[in-house]
Design brief:
The structure holds 2 protein chains of 2 kinds.
Chain A lengths: L1 E8 L3 H12 L4 E5 L13 E3 L3 H10 L4 H8 E7 L9 E6 L1 H14 L3 E5 L2 E7 L2 E7 L4 E9 L8 E4 L2 E4 L10 H8 L4 E8 L2 E3 L9 E3 L22 E5 L2 H9 L22 H7 L7 E8 L2 E7 L7 H9 L9 E3 L2 E8 L16 E3 L9 H19 L13 H12 L23 H12 L4 H23 L1 E2 L1 H6 L11 E2 H4 L7 H7 L8 H12 L1 H19 L16 H10 L4 H5 L6 H19 L1
Parallel strand pairs in A: 1-2, 1-9, 2-6, 9-20
Antiparallel strand pairs in A: 3-5, 4-5, 7-8, 8-9, 10-11, 10-19, 12-19, 13-17, 13-18, 14-15, 15-16, 16-17, 21-22
Chain B lengths: L2 E5 L8 E7 L3 H9 L9 E7 L2 E11 L10 E7 L2 H12 L4 E3 L4 H8 L5 H26 L1 H26 L10 H30 L1 E7 L5 H11 L5 E3 L7 E7 L2 E7 L9 H16 L2 E6 L14 E4 L20 H17 L7 H22 L5 H19 L4 H11 L5
Helix pairs in contact in B: 5-6, 5-11, 5-12, 6-10, 10-11
The chains are: A alpha+beta, B alpha/beta.
Bound molecules: flavin-adenine dinucleotide.
């Protein structure tokens, strides 16, 4: 039997990031997946990033992960969403050339030391003495490891629906994982069922582009990776069109033939990614819905019509698609479909993504009830790093809500579970003003260096940047202007007699770095990129100071770890209802306990008292 | 960590009330009221002043970090028990930057965190916790039942709606969400500001219902104030306690008038005087009388100096047994006019109580006022344009967090529910 430190099952977005993370930590890692050439496949839309999601990609990149780099190599239309709003809510996004993304991911994977790709289907887990210690492939061969990361996406008991036809499938063209799903059921993991859908793919040669509006990328494209500063390939535009009343009539008439409305699907779908059937029914007063026509690649004519995912039968798909302006003669290359799959209730996981009741087994990605490549990849990174840390007998790496979107997501998942496929939004992060896409490296690269998952190239560019930031900040702080001096230079500030440093002038919404540099000669020598970064930090300085108390309070509570075997029933003074709730949720920290519905401050104090008692006993 | 404060003794009806302040700014805050502080662990008598106005004369004790109940820097102010005094000092502390009212159980919690309780105490704590949990549950239930519950739910719904509109323009830019949510957001914010302001105005009367109205009897020396007080006190079977005044210049008697708790204050006789000691007493009497909810002016033959009646105040002529006057006359000796006086005082206070809000605690008022301020800054940011949407959203979040103190947790899921119910999201 072959031995590895860590085995990752599934070569999707979660799996590749997990395998890379583990390998970067120096753990001997195997990535077992159905098809080597499917590594880096995007099951749904050909795009990476967006609001909240772009933040996740930046954080992955800050820890030297692969998603951001691959997206930059494959990016054919970069846009910084919310460019006109503040930096805290700007999110990088790109259309990605499917083939280039796949190639980039496969190349990065080939080049990664300590990482072996194995083609095959994992059919079973080896469990010894209550701990997962290896996997059994469909061909009967076995692999052993100290940590196993499962990232099988939509493949567990996957069923594809097109109209009233169903067939088993992990995604179109792929078999589902049935044996493994059965095994997880036997292990009595808490399973549920979710669904998602995808639109038909269109032949771009049959679209009347000349009569449609188009949306170009940004003039000044923002890359995902902190290591990159410009795109690698030619940039293209997307087309824009709209559905109309006729489209809606066709859909309405055929609702009973839709998989979701015909009652064939029981799983819950995402509200923020509704099918066109859903849109037409729920927002009946809207007579048009926007459709983006996104190219799937530079030398590929396939078009992804974003906004019309569906599970109607093929003939209806063709009729409604052709009722849309510009698509009158379009040819459908592959029909849209819905997919239903098993997921594991993430409340069964620790914040390391290890199963509480099955040590050695980590879960990441869509299997945990999330949706989206970025969410999957970010979890993969967390699971991969922690599996490696565990094998190396080191302390786990727990991401906090106070310092990363990754932490927000993991905490949401493991404390509250999911009721629909979970997707990242900036509004989920209560400390949004300090957790920005632009400062992901400042928040996390240092952490990654300490862990050992950040390579030499990034270490150098990071420490160089940090030095320049701190020198720049010192310089800005040292230049002090009276309101009169500021006004003489054309800067609009209150004439209140208060002297202000150049740094605090940057917190004024209508003063930016280039303006300041133009009127303060000492700033001429500063790299404008560094200046702009400092301006983004300065903009929120007031708010961030106000939030610091909240952050400190949360951090303190996060530091109080509640042991897995903590006995709530032994706490006198706690209501039976809370005892039950806590026993079921088994929060990992005092902070998580506080977020459980119905908690009182006094009950928290009581738990804290017991934790202190335990800590003292441990010291004695 | 923030510095917290709270009344550490039971509220109301006590000779002495202790306010505890704990945290890095505790001594600084105490010093701002008391001036020079005594050495740690030594009691010192100090005048507590705010903006030149004397709040009370109090015993001040400081405890150093590592040698206090909570383990933090602590200051204790031992005040005279009058509720008005306690409220004034709590309010003065609320106004200081970096200080806030403690949450229930927070002192104990800090003591625990800082290792100030030993093993036995920790074990004994469960009883305390039990009572605390129970009382909190009851309090929360009471606050959330009936009128308060409905009102706060209404605010919450508006606030969630406003926040959701803004968040939709942030998180779903690429979607078909309505471009300009500003008018609706501003309307919601303005509605809320109006509601909160109205409730804050009424919360004073609400607190009075809970803690009692103060009615001051004012008049020149020997106008018969004490006789009147004794008479009122003697007539009313429902006197609840008689306690020493906060200063020797003011006598307080607590009684029940028509179901309302009322504290009668008998102030020093008012007159211009050259005697320094008497002048201080008179000055104090004037302040207390002016701070009271209602004044009864007891006239003899001349006007009452140094203080003018406010609307609703009662003007009566004393010693009706000795002479006849035009107007409302009473006699502390014969009891003439007493029934009428009681009836009028009761009617006036009942009228005020009828307009009372439901937010009766300093904590409620603090939450409302935090929410109100946050709404104000949200409004400014919204009007500055969509480029500032995340800052407006941050202020709305603060407003929500302030209301959380009243309604329990408001979750981001509520925002998302509102967004998905209102907009067709999903391109
Ligand atoms: C039809 C469809 C529509 C979607 N729509 C959206 C959308 O609108 N918006 C959105 O954000 N996201 C959407 N997604 C989701 C997005 O594709 C996923 O969230 C993301 O790819 C999940 O990544 P993952 O790594 O968890 O799983 P996947 O990318 O699904 O990867 C799973 C991997 O595991 C491998 N595997 C499975 N079983 C085994 C086994 N037993 N042994 C070995 N290997 C195995 C597979 O070969 C595959 O490589 C959609 C997905 C599908 C299929």
């Amino acid at each position: 039997m072959k031995h590895f430190d860590v085995i990752v099952v599934g070569g999707g977005h979660a799996g590749t990031e997990a395998a890379h993370g583990s390998a970067r930590m120096g753990a001997e890692t195997a990535l077992v997946t159905l098809r080597r050439d499917a590594i880096g496949v995007m099951s749904c839309n050909p795009a990476i990033g967006g609001l909240g999601k772009g933040h996740l990609v930046r954080e992955i990149d800050a820890l030297d992960g692969v998603m951001g780099r691959a997206a930059d190599f494959a990016g054919i239309q970069f846009r910084l969403l919310n460019r006109r709003k503040g930096p805290a809510v700007q999110g990088p996004r790109t259309q990605a050339d499917r083939k280039l993304y796949r190639e980039a991911m496969q190349k990065l994977t080939d080049d990664q030391p300590h990482l072996t790709v194995i083609e095959g289907e994992v059919a079973d887990l080896i469990v010894t003495e209550g701990k997962v210690s290896g996997v059994i492939l469909a061909d009967g061969s076995q692999l052993a490891a100290g940590g196993i990361v499962l990232t099988t996406g939509t493949f567990l008991n996957g069923v594809i629906h097109i109209g009233d036809r169903q067939k088993p499938g992990g995604r179109i063209g792929d078999q589902p994982s049935v044996a493994l799903a059965a095994r997880l059921r036997d292990l009595s993991l808490p399973l549920g069922r979710l669904k998602t859908g995808t639109p038909p793919r269109l032949d771009g040669k049959t679209i009347r582009w000349d009569i449609l509006d188009s949306q170009p990328g940004d003039d000044d494209p923002e890359m995902f990776s902190f290591l990159h500063d410009k795109p690698f390939v030619r940039q293209v535009s997307c087309g824009i069109t709209h559905t109309n009343e006729q489209t809606h009539d066709i859909i309405r008439e055929n609702l009973n033939r839709s998989a979701m409305y015909g009652g064939h699907i029981s799983g819950v779908g995402p509200r923020y990614c509704p099918s066109i059937e859903d849109k037409v029914v729920r927002f009946a007063d809207k007579n048009a819905h926007q459709v983006f026509l996104e190219p799937e690649g530079l030398d590929d004519d396939t078009i992804y019509p974003n906004g019309v995912s569906t599970s109607l039968p093929e003939d209806v798909q063709e009729r409604y698609i052709r009722s849309i302006r510009g698509l009158e003669n379009v040819r459908i290359l592959q029909p849209g479909y819905a997919i239903e799959y098993d997921f594991v209730d993430p409340r069964a996981l620790k914040p390391t993504l290890e199963l509480r009741d099955l040590p050695g087994l980590y879960l990441a990605g869509q299997i945990n009830g999330t949706t989206g490549y970025e969410e999957a990849a970010a979890q993969g990174l967390v699971a991969g790093l922690n599996a490696a840390l565990c094998v190396q007998s080191r302390d786990p790496m727990i991401f906090s809500r106070t310092s990363s979107y990754i932490g927000v997501m993991i905490d949401d998942l493991v404390t509250r579970g999911v009721s629909e496929p979970y997707r990242m939004f900036t509004s989920r992060a209560e400390f949004r003003l300090s957790l920005r896409a632009d400062n992901a490296d400042q928040r996390l690269t240092g952490v990654g260096l300490a862990l050992g998952c950040v390579g030499e190239e990034r270490r150098r560019s990071f420490s160089d940047k940090m030095e320049r930031l701190s020198a720049g900040k010192d310089l800005l702080a040292s230049i002090v202007l009276t309101p009169k001096e500021a006004a003489l230079r054309g800067l609009r500030v209150n004439q209140d007699g208060a002297k202000r440093s150049a740094y605090s002038l940057l917190s004024f919404p209508d003063i930016d770095f280039s303006q300041l540099a133009a009127v303060i000669p000492e700033l001429g020598a500063m790299d404008p990129k560094i200046g702009e970064q400092l301006a983004r930090d300065a903009l929120y300085a007031h708010y961030i100071i106000r939030q610091e108390n909240d952050i400190a309070a949360l951090k303190r509570d996060e530091d109080w770890v509640i042991p897995d075997d903590f006995d709530y029933s032994a706490l006198s003074g706690l209501s039976n209802e809370l005892k039950l709730k806590l026993g079921r949720a088994r929060p990992q920290t005092l902070a998580q306990a506080g977020r459980i519905d119905g908690m009182t401050p006094a009950a928290l104090a009581l738990i804290l008292a017991r934790l202190r008692q335990g800590r003292r006993a441990a010291i004695a | 960590m923030e510095t917290i404060f709270a009344l550490a003794t039971a509220r109301g009806k006590a000779g002495v009330a202790v306010i505890r302040i704990s945290g890095a700014l505790a001594w600084e805050a105490a010093g701002r009221l008391a001036g020079r502080l005594p050495e740690p662990r030594v009691a010192g008598l100090r005048h507590l002043r705010l903006d030149g106005e004397t709040l009370d004369e109090a015993v001040v004790i400081c405890f150093a970090e590592g040698a206090s109940f909570t383990g933090e820097e602590v200051a204790e102010l031992h005040l005279h028990g009058a509720m008005a005094t306690v409220t004034a000092v709590l309010r003065a502390l609320s106004g200081m930057e970096g200080l806030r009212l403690a949450e229930p159980g927070e002192f104990t919690r800090r003591a625990l965190e800082n290792g100030r309780l030993d093993l036995a105490q920790v074990e004994g704590l469960s009883d305390l916790i039990e009572s605390e949990t129970e009382s909190q549950r009851k309090q929360a239930l009471a606050v959330l039942s009936g009128a308060v519950g409905t009102m706060v739910e209404g605010w919450r719904a508006k606030l969630v709606r406003a926040a959701a509109l803004l968040e939709a323009t942030i998180d779903f830019v690429d979607e078909d969400v309505p471009v300009d949510v500003t008018p609706e957001v501003i309307e919601l914010i303005d509605d809320l500001r109006r509601d909160l302001r109205w409730e804050m105005d009424r919360s004073g009367a609400a607190e009075r219902i809970r803690e009692g109205f103060e009615v001051a009897i004012v008049g020149r020396p020997n106008a018969g104030k004490s006789t009147l007080l004794n008479m009122l006190a003697g007539r009313e079977a429902a006197i609840t306690s008689e306690i020493a005044g906060t200063t020797r210049d003011v006598i307080e008697v607590r009684m029940d008038l028509g179901g309302l708790a009322v504290t009668l204050l008998d102030t020093a006789g008012l007159r211009e005087t050259a005697d320094v000691v008497e002048a201080i007493g008179v000055e104090r009497a004037v302040q207390r009388a002016q701070g009271a909810d209602l004044r009864i002016f007891l006239l003899d033959d001349a006007d009452v100096p140094m203080i003018a009646p406010k609307p609703d105040d009662l003007i009566v002529f004393g010693k009706a047994d000795l002479r006849s006057v035009d107007g409302f006359a009473i006699s502390g000796k014969t009891g003439e006019g007493l029934d009428r006086l009681i009836a009028e005082v009761t009617a006036i206070l009942a009228n005020r109580a009828a307009g009372a809000g439901v937010m009766s605690r300093e904590r409620h008022r603090a939450a409302l006022s935090r929410a109100f301020d946050a709404l104000d800054s949200a409004r400014n940011e919204v009007l500055r344009g969509t480029e500032r949407a995340e800052l407006a959203a941050e202020s709305l979040r603060q407003a929500l967090r302030a209301l959380e103190a009243l309604v329990g947790h408001v979750d981001v899921e509520h925002l998302l529910d509102e967004i998905f119910a209102s907009f067709c999201i999903g391109k």
